Amino acid sequence: MININLIDDSGLKQTLQATEGQSLMQVAVSAGVRGIVGECGGSAMCATCHVYVDDAFTDQLPPPLETELEMLECTASERRPNSRLSCQIKLTVAQEGLVVRLPERQQ
Ligand code: FES
To answer: Which residue among 23, 26, 40, 69 has the greatest number of ligand 1 atoms within 8 angstroms of its CB, and so is best to mutate?
Structure first.
């Protein structure tokens, strides 16, 4: 199991457990996390799974592909240097303890 931490825009932290190979979006949507929509089902076509990755973890994630970078231009909330699409974050044990913040809105 991999523990991941999501902090919503009010500062409320929720810790979820994931298995290797799941995407962060899948884990959040399955748990009913408010603030992650995942409208396109994970194909990098909607940007409703936008998250801000904590600085301590940004270097641990594979860099975004071109399709993700393009879709990050369509986020409803401000895009920041640590913005990622959570559907493109495939979880491995290397991400144990991952911390992400949820944007104010997704749509
Ligand atoms: S779920 Fe649509 S871009 Fe991530």
So the answer is: 40
